[in-house]
């Protein structure tokens, strides 16, 4: 019954046009997601590279990342809305806060997980610290780094719905409206759309991962050589690395 | 030439890894640092290319203080091979080997053609250059590691337990390969291992370290086995050192005697005693025990498998082992092509050893 209603809502041409139509909402939703993941990457990737490369501040980073993760996003949006007023800013900041931990953990774990022997050899060959990072550590960290990005993207796509609470036309709108007027068709239809967007984005990133991750790494079926450092395993576990984030050999 | 002058390394936690080391590694030799774990052998090696800096003292490479050179620049001029090779998994074998030439600013084409030469030098087929490290066996990876270290033709090569992660048979092959390369290239090689057998096998000089980073003895392998400086070294070189030292006595004094032979696939004439079975190229196939009757052509199934073989002119350890491992008690000597030359008994070998002891006085 509900699914028939949802289907009816999804195929109703009236829902696909106008400034509150589904295409506009998908567009707004995607814009927020893109902004949040890019913003979070701009913070988390350099930080993760730095901490992973130098080994300084790793404990602080993991603790801080997990603390951020514990913040309820809806509460954060409301809080920021109350202190900063309406507009795009509070929502974007809240989504960035949400997306930072998985990207940070993925980047850091990716760098830490590079075989110590490989890094030692790179230094011993005469690479400068920067060359070790860009030419050896980063390429080998890509599988876990992109895994972190995918994880962050999924979370942001699901959570961008909360923007609707503060009046922004994301795909959260049908959920709120549907709930308010007990229109379960609209409610479920909106949820289906969010899920479809999440799956589509993840497939896109999976394709990107396949294109970007060096061939030599995909051959092994794991990010680095046979003897992996064990010390980052715990971090990956606590950071809830997505199982989809591994290699695609 | 590499000189350690009163080199001490104390780590932040207070452990002394290397204690006032004075040692000269002569140019064009393989010098092995050996000792139990925690004896400072690896730390000493890593101070040469500044992977670790000494707390005090001076290290000179070809007369130049390493501390006066910027580490990356210093390291590009010194070959470096580590345990498990440490190949870059994201790069092809060829690009791995081309690493240092590219860092030195060579053109890509020149670096790659040099890398291809190196693969050939270490005995890998050219098409392996297109593969990735994950597609190679441990022994092949280690060969690539050696090729990578040699790519820019550095005069000095540092090898940190390079062969300890591969199985014994492959390890022996890699050791032979290294000795062959060294005969060709004449590098100054420092080789770290915890395996005393490996040390005496490949080292022209061996430095034995003890716990606390103290150099216990620095000598030729034969001297190390014959005259250990103290109980620590004697214990470290092991119970079999008497037998192992036979590796340094050449077998040319051993008189090789004739042996009755039979040919596999041909009729066997009557005879008694052990008879050595050979194929048409005179390569040994096994022993025909006394009293065996053979009808028709000789089949390999009636033969007893032979013992180890030794080459005429090699060490007397091989001759002794051949005699001891042979079912007939006769050690089979072969020429470099593998054809039978004759046989020796353990008694004969012992007589030669005793004779040499007397002549040494």
Automatic annotation (TrEMBL), chain A:
Residues 26-205 form the ABC transmembrane type-1 domain. InterPro entries: ABC_transp_perm/SBD, MetI-like, MetI-like_sf. Its main location: membrane. GO terms for biological process: glycine betaine transport; transmembrane transport. It comes from the Bacteria. GO terms for cellular component: plasma membrane. Residues 219-249 are annotated as: Disordered. It holds the Pfam family BPD_transp_1. This is ABC transporter permease.
TrEMBL record, chain B:
It is an enzyme of class 7 (translocase). InterPro entries: AAA+_ATPase, ABC_transporter-like_ATP-bd, ABC_transporter-like_CS, P-loop_NTPase. The keyword Metal-binding does not apply. PROSITE patterns: ABC_TRANSPORTER_1, ABC_TRANSPORTER_2. The keyword RNA-binding does not apply. Pfam families: ABC_tran. Residues 2-237 form the ABC transporter domain. It comes from the Bacteria. GO terms for molecular function: ABC-type quaternary ammonium compound transporting activity; ATP binding; ATP hydrolysis activity. Its EC number is 7.6.2.9. SMART domains: AAA. Keywords: ATP-binding, Nucleotide-binding, Transport. Belongs to the ABC transporter superfamily. This is ABC-type quaternary amine transporter. The lineage of its organism: Bacteria, Bacillati, Actinomycetota, Actinomycetes, Pseudonocardiales.
């Amino acid at each position: 019954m509900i699914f028939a209603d949802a289907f009816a809502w999804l195929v109703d041409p009236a829902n696909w046009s106008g400034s509150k139509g589904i295409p506009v909402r998908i567009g707004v939703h995607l814009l927020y997601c893109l902004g949040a993941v890019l913003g979070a990457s701009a913070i988390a990737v350099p930080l993760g590279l730095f901490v992973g490369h130098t080994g300084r501040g790793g404990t602080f980073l993991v603790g801080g990342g997990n603390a951020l993760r514990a913040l309820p996003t809806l509460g954060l949006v409301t809080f920021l809305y109350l202190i900063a007023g309406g507009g795009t800013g509070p929502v974007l900041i809240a989504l960035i806060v949400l997306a930072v931990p998985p990207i940070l953990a993925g980047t850091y774990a990716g760098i830490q997980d590079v075989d110590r022997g490989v890094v030692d050899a790179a230094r011993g060959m005469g690479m400068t610290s920067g060359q070790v990072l860009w030419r050896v550590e980063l390429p080998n960290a890509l599988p876990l780094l992109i895994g972190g990005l995918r994880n962050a993207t999924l979370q942001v796509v699901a959570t961008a719905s909360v923007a609707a609470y503060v009046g922004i036309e994301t795909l959260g709108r049908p959920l709120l409206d549907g709930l308010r007027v007990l229109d379960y068709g609209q409610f479920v239809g909106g949820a289906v759309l969010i899920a479809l967007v999440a799956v589509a984005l993840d497939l896109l990133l999976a394709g990107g991962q396949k294109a970007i991750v060096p061939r030599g790494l995909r051959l092994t079926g794991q990010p680095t050589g046979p003897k992996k450092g064990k010390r980052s395993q715990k971090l990956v576990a606590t950071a809830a690395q997505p199982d989809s984030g591994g290699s695609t050999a | 030439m590499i000189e350690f002058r009163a080199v001490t390394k104390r780590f932040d936690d207070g452990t002394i890894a290397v204690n006032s080391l004075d040692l000269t590694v002569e140019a064009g030799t393989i010098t092995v640092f050996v000792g139990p774990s925690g004896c400072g052998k690896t730390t000493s090696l890593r101070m040469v290319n500044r992977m670790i800096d000494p707390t005090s003292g001076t290290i000179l490479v070809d007369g130049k203080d390493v501390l006066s050179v910027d580490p990356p620049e210093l390291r590009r001029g010194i070959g470096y091979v580590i345990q498990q090779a440490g190949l870059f998994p994201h790069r092809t074998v060829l690009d791995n080997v081309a690493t240092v030439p590219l860092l030195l600013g060579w053109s890509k084409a020149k670096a790659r053609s040099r890398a291809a030469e190196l693969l050939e030098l270490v005995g890998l087929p050219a098409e392996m250059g297109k593969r990735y490290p994950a597609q190679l066996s441990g022994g092949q990876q280690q060969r690539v590691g050696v090729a990578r270290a040699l790519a820019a033709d550095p005069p000095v090569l540092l090898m940190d337990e390079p062969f300890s992660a591969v199985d014994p048979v492959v390890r022996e092959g890699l050791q032979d390969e290294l000795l062959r390369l060294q005969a060709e290239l004449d590098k100054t090689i420092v080789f770290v291992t915890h395996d005393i057998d490996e040390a005496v096998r490949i080292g022209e000089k061996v430095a034995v370290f003890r716990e606390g980073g103290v150099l216990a003895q620095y000598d030729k392998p034969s001297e190390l086995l014959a005259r250990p400086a103290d109980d620590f070294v004697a214990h470290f070189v092991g119970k079999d050192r008497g037998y192992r030292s036979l590796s340094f006595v050449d077998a040319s004094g051993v008189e090789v005697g004739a042996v009755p032979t039979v040919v596999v696939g041909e009729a066997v004439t009557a005879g008694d005693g052990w008879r050595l079975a050979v194929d048409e190229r005179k390569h040994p196939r096994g022993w025909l025990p006394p009293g065996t009757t053979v009808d028709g052509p000789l089949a390999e199934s009636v033969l007893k498998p032979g013992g180890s073989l030794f080459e005429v002119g090699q060490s007397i350890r091989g001759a002794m082992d051949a005699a001891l491992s042979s079912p007939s008690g006769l050690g089979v000597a072969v020429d470099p092509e593998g054809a039978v030359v004759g046989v020796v008994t353990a008694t004969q070998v012992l007589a030669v050893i005793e004779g040499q002891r007397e002549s040494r006085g």
